[in-house]
Design brief:
The protein is mainly alpha-helical. It has helices at about 5-10, 15-45, 50-60.
């Protein structure tokens, strides 16, 4: 049995309050990892194409406000 399977089985045995706690913990860690990856990708230049595209479309007048005005 893998570690993941052991963890899954342990989670299945949790009561409702313990499950909510672990679910919140996992969501927080997932968000932290997402933020770290985004920071890393930004610092390394992997996302430069997005900035270049936005600048080009801005100059061409193709950008719209978000959220759209009502």
């Amino acid at each position: 049995m893998s570690r993941v399977e052991e963890i899954e089985e342990a989670i299945d045995r949790l009561g409702p309050e313990e499950f909510r706690r672990i679910a919140g913990w996992v969501r927080e860690r997932e968000q932290q990892r997402w933020d770290q990856q985004l920071d890393s990708d930004t610092s390394s230049g992997k996302l430069d194409f997005l900035f270049e595209e936005a600048e080009r479309e801005s100059k061409e007048g193709l950008l719209r406000d978000w959220p759209p005005s009502k």
